[in-house]
Amino acid sequence: MKRILKRTGIATTLTAITAVSVLAFGGVAYADIIQDSIEGSASVTLVAGSATAGSATMRLNANGKSDGDIGCNIDAGESPLKLTVVAPSGVTASPNPVVITNCTDDFPVSFTAGTAAQSGTVTVLILAQPAGGGEFKNQVGIPITVTQPVPTNTAPSVSVNGVSNGASYEIGTVPTATCLVVDAEDVDPTAASVTTGALLNGLGTQTTTCDYTDAGGLNAPTATVTYTVVDTVDPTIGYTLNPVDPDGTNGWYTTDSGVLVHFACEDVGGSGIATCPADVILMDGADQSVTGTATDNAGNTASVTVSGITVDTVDPTISYTLDPADANANGWYTS
User: Fold this and answer.
1) Which of 155, 164, 200, 216 is least surrounded by Cβ atoms within 10 Å, i.e. has the fewest?
2) CATH architecture of 16-147
3) DSSP codes, 74-119
4) What is the C-alpha to C-alpha distance for residues 93 and 86, in angstroms, rounded to an integer?
5) Would you tell me which CATH number, out of the four given (2.60.40, 2.30.30, 3.30.310, 1.10.101), belongs to the domain 157-230?
6) Percent of the chain whose predicted confidence (pLDDT) is above 70
């Protein structure tokens, strides 16, 4: 009895194998059942690199007419029909080989695609067949379509670096605020920070914001940090005297204009001087003192006291008496 494996749609009177592809989502598609034929119908679609399998089935259809072995070519006690599955490059079939033991059941085979898999057609080769005779016509052809995975686009994230939310920074020492972007797909993503908030005399509250949209159009949640610039350092104050040193004896200043005390105030790197004492002129008096206070724009103060200033701008007076008080008639003192 002759056995023939045959493709779908060609009728025959010979014993054959039927191969029926099943879509990956589980629906079974059968072509018309033709005796003694291998049928290939709807294609199997696979995603390259995915572990999700597509499946098909193969069937051996018995032939009631003689091809050397009437009916199913696999008789009781005979070894099965073994088919080697030949898949396109990168496509793996399981099981392989497919072992067909009767003409009643569908025998499943699943397919997965590697990352470099190619579309093509699955065929089979007869690896071993029953010893009872008969022929097989092999025209199995299961179309395999390999698609590429949809590119993954993970939403990015962004954070503010350099400054901390709620922190206070001394004026002149505020760190540089930058944006740190993390995105799984974009290469070297960067974003510019935006800082808002007006400062008065370099002091006040500022807010730094970072935003980022990736190449796929996904936005990172906005990152915001608010911090305060403060000045906690006191200013400095000093003084000079004019004249610098006492111009009289014993530590006395005798200049008619008195002693000029000039105050000098600084707030280097700070918020700046808000008030500095005016010049003070010390006039006559012993052991005088004067205090000057500098105030910066943050309200910090510093004071200095000038002391021990002794001033005498008034010349002394001098008088005399004579004894005897008067001269003689000729203006002579004779006593």
Assistant:
1) 200
2) Sandwich (2.60)
3) S-TTPPPEEEEEE--TTEEEESSSEEE--SSS-EEEEEEE-TT---
4) 8
5) 2.60.40
6) 83
* C-alpha dihedral (195, 199, 205, 206), degrees to nearest 10: 0
User: Please, which pLDDT band fits residue 327 given cuts at 50, 70 and 90?
Assistant: confident
What is the share, in percent, of the chain residues with pLDDT greater than 90? 64
C-beta of residue 2 within 8 angstroms of C-beta of residue 134: yes
pLDDT tens, 150-197?
888 999 999 999 999 999 999 999 999 999 999 999 999 999 999 999
pLDDT in tens, 43-94: 899 999 999 999 888 888 776 555 555 667 777 888 888 999 999 999 999 9
Work out whether strand 280-282 and strand 301-311 pair parallel, antiparallel, or are unpaired.
unpaired
Place of tokens 């009631």: 64
* pTM score of the predicted model: 0.58
Which residue bears the tokens 């497919």?
A: 98
Cβ–Cβ < 8 Å for 147, 46: yes
Show the CA angle centred on residue 26, arms to residues 24 and 32, nearest 5°.
100
Spatial distance between the Cα atoms of 110 and 97, rounded to a whole number of angstroms: 12
Domain ranges of the chain: 16-147, 157-230, 236-311
CB neighbour class for 270 (10 Å; exposed up to 12, middle 13-18, buried from 19): buried
Paired residues of 179 in beta bridges: 160
What is the residue whose two structure tokens read 């012993």? 286
Please enumerate in sequence order all residues whose Cβ is within 8 A of that of 85, keeping only pairs 6 or more positions apart, or say none: 93, 96, 97, 98, 109, 122, 123, 124
The contacts of residue 21 (CB under 8 Å, 6+ apart) are 29, 40, 41, 42, 43, 44, 54, 55, 56, 57, 142, 143
User: How far is Cα of residue 114 from the mean position of the Cα atoms in its chain?
Assistant: 32
State the amino acid at position 41 in one-letter form: S
Contact by Cβ (8 Å): 310, 286: yes
